[in-house]
Amino acid sequence: MYPNIKALHRFLADAKVEEKNIPLSKMSRLPDTNQVSLVFDGNKILDVITQAVRESDGVSVFTTTTSLALYEQISLFCELSTEWLKTHFKQKDMDFKGIFTFNGCGFTPHVEVNPVAPTKPPVELLQNGVLNEVLTVKDLSPETVRRCAARFFIEEDIEARIVRMFHENCPDTFRAPYLAWSQISAFFAPGNQYASEVYGCVELLAFPGIERVVTNINTKTQTFDCISKAALLAAVRKRCLDFSEEDLSSILLFESKNSLFCVNGMPDIFDDFCRYASSEHGSRTMNFLVSSTRVREDEKRLLRRNLAALDAPVLIKDGRCMYLSKLYNKKKQSDVTAEFGKRLPSIFYYFIFGGPVMPASYASLGQGTFVDNWPLIDTSTYRGIAENIFPLRVQVAFQLFIYTGYRSKLRWLRQYILFKCKEDNDRRWSPIEDPPEIELVSWVVEPDTLPMNEDNNVFLSDILVFQESGVLEKLVYPDIRTSLAVILLKSLDLLGYFTHSAEGIELSGSSIYSKALEKFNCPTLSEYGVLVIELVRTRALHGNRIPLVIPHQNVPDDGQLKCVRFAARLLSVIPLNLMAPWSGPFDLEMAAFGTSSRLVGRMLRLLTEAIAALLFATKSTNVPLSQFDEIIKRLPFGIPVEFNAGFLMTYILTKKCSLDDLRRTFPELYNLEEDLRTIFWFWKMASEALTLISMEESGLVDYYLLCDAHDMVSMACWRLCPEFWDEAFRPMTQGTGFEFNRMPEGFYDLGSMPMNLSLNNGNY
User: Fold this and answer.
1) How far apart are CA 352 and CA 368, in angstroms?
2) Which of 39, 118, 424, 696 is found 20 to 30 A from 437 (Cα to Cα)?
3) Residue by residue, what is the 3-state secondary structure of 543-587?
4) Cα–Cα nearest to 357, from 83, 109, 615
5) Which runs of E-coded beta strand occur in 184-271?
6) Could you count the other beta carbons within 10 Å of the beta carbon of residue 749?
7) Please, are residues 605 and 692 in contact by the beta-carbon 8 Å criterion?
8) Taking Cα atoms as reference points, which of 502, 494, 492, 500 lies closest to residue 526?
9) Burial group, residue 728, by CB count within 10 angstroms (0-12, 13-18, 19+)
10) Residue 12 — very low, low, confident or very high, per pLDDT cuts 50/70/90?
11) 19-232: what fold?
């Protein structure tokens, strides 16, 4: 019940402070109402989801970006809040409201103390590959699965997806300006009370206004369990008589294992903390921080940071942002600006709170820091891509800087840059120069020209018709659809998809990238087209091996052809329809590529969200601010990029398999034929697009590698979907650079085929 407390957890478990089986009717109500307002702590929800994924889909870190266990837990929480609890209390003539609150910008980043690289993957995985017919997920040993599960954690793009899903199903879903626990505390403040109970982590008892925390809700017995601040203090005082409420707040925040609060490698300090006492020189907390020799100075610095959570900026009912301590009429104890950054414009807090948007760019704006934590799979490829896309990342944030007028020294913190000599580890910090100032133009968008799509969606393929309609004057857009179109146009413009004349005679036009994007003429797949183009531009998409950085051991060479790796990686971004956790063949290298493609997808999402925010902040749309979330939920790149289609395609391209073989090997693919048609159609569009790019940017696309890959994918389509081949591949004989007079009846014999393929393919 206490997932984030270690030494204190053991003490509390022994003290049995948790009160169990309390009737739900005993839940507190808002003052002068008959309404139970239960706020769900986003940190607790993420803990529950993490544990569920580790238990039921332990190898997901290497097989699936978004585990089915994640969706199941979200459904359970949403059903509990919007249906079961609401119905239960209605039967008792009571009202119920569920509120979900997640973290926002967090603390100003610090370098990790006692940094530790992720544990080495099991040897069993390093030796595994899709060509290995014996070893699949279901064949892994329990110990290997356990070690894989321990590596799983929720990254930024997955958390953003979780928050958006809660927001779509539970309207009262928010991101705190900075810390969820601080904002939840504000929901209990007199004069600002919005919640009457909280389900979450025991650390919430460190905050004012929160007298108890619900730890479990049992729908079968219609009861709940909780732990109260009074019971917790009483238990500790049996051991330390003068233990105060302030002491309790400190030790809860000091020993938290939450990712924002955890001090890596610090020893358990509960016993040591209790040995100190308040004195004329200061509180127990201050005396401990000054005198303890068990904790190093760099660790104490982070403990002081944790205490700043009690002063964190929070939003209150009237829309203002104020310090939590001021809300409770308490003295501020910390340097809020140092720990959380500059105060942002109020409208940006609104975007974070009610959007909900990914807070990374806003955090960089206020804190002057871009931070990269450890990726799930650390490779030299990942690090190279992080450097390649970093200028865009800075430019996106700089668009927000231009709006605010802020100017500050920017830094890039890469937690994964480690050296054996500790003195060199300050190289994790990199100074950043201000990027060139780019002022984005407006775009004339005719609403009648936009295709009508379901739910007012606008796709990237829909807006290319306006690529020559850029204008210098500011325009105001009337509705959601035109606003969406302009957001996408501005996003592509910042990416360099359009050309602009310096003389202003021809203000905008197409580039090779917009021409390539035109090839992705299937609206719902056009965002994956942009992703593939950007993977090429960042040099992430190629056919070479991906050597691992951590651990310092490469994946064994499995003999795959470069064209197989290239095609499988390109097609890995297309999501598959799964009905169960992945059980078939997989390999570490494709998972490593997935980590890199997710990085690019995450950057594209941040870009579109920032452009959307600026459209509202500059009053360039007539869409009410209250409908900002209607824009956000329609933006592309909202689903974290998957990679398991790469396993499927590697298997298909290297084996003479039939549909029945695929069904047996990949039983979790419940709509295999439809998945294959989508994959093959996407390849048709992608190969045409990359052919265009190769004509002008030969350094980005290896044309001959693309041709070899096309041969193999085309033959796979002929073998598995012969009726679909005529539609997807035969038209490519005209005007695309690909020439197929007939489909060969044979298939590459990979066992006897030389590694250097003949390049005499048609007219290449």
Assistant:
1) 18
2) 696
3) CCCCCECCCCCCCCCCCCCHHHHHHHHHHCCCCCCECCCCCCCCC
4) 615
5) 197-199, 212-218, 223-228
6) 8
7) no
8) 492
9) buried
10) confident
11) Rossmann fold (3.40.50)
What is the maximum alpha-carbon separation in the chain? 92
Q: What is the CA radius of gyration of the chain?
A: 28
DSSP letter (8 states) at residue 294: S
Map out the domains of the chain as residue ranges: 19-232, 442-653, 654-764
Residue with tokens 């990374």: 360
The number of C-alpha atoms within 13 Å of 120 and in the hemisphere containing its C-beta is 9
Q: How many residues does the chain have?
A: 764
Least confident of 21-30, 63-72, 281-290, 635-644: 281-290
Q: Determine which of 29-33, 207-211, 377-381 has the lowest per-residue pLDDT on average.
A: 377-381
Distance separating alpha carbons of residues 329 and 80, to the nearest angstrom: 35
HEC-encoded secondary structure of 111-167 = CCCCCCCCCCCCHHHHCCCCCCCCCCHHHCCHHHHHHHHHHCCCCHHHHHHHHHHHH
**Per-residue pLDDT band at 763 (split at 50, 70, 90):** very low
Distance between CA atoms of residues 478 and 622, nearest Å: 5
**Residues 6+ away with beta carbon under 8 Å from 160:** 356, 357, 358, 605, 638
Beta bridge partners of 99: 39
The model's confidence at residue 1, banded by pLDDT at 50, 70 and 90, is very low
pLDDT one-digit tens code per residue, 580-635: 999 989 988 899 999 999 999 999 999 999 999 999 999 999 999 999 999 999 99
For Cα atoms 642, 648, 649, give the angle at the middle one, nearest 5 degrees. 100
Following DSSP, what letter does each residue of 651-696 receive, concatenated? HHHHS---HHHHHHH-TTBTTHHHHHHHHHHHHHHHHHHHHHHHHH
Residue type, 592: A
* CB contact at 8 A, 213 and 205: yes
Count Cβ atoms within 10 A of the Cβ of residue 508 and give its class: 0-12 exposed, 13-18 middle, 19 or more buried: buried
Provide the pLDDT confidence category of residue 119 given band limits of 50, 70 and 90. Answer: low
Global confidence as pTM: 0.91
Q: How many CB atoms lie within 10 A of CB 119?
A: 11
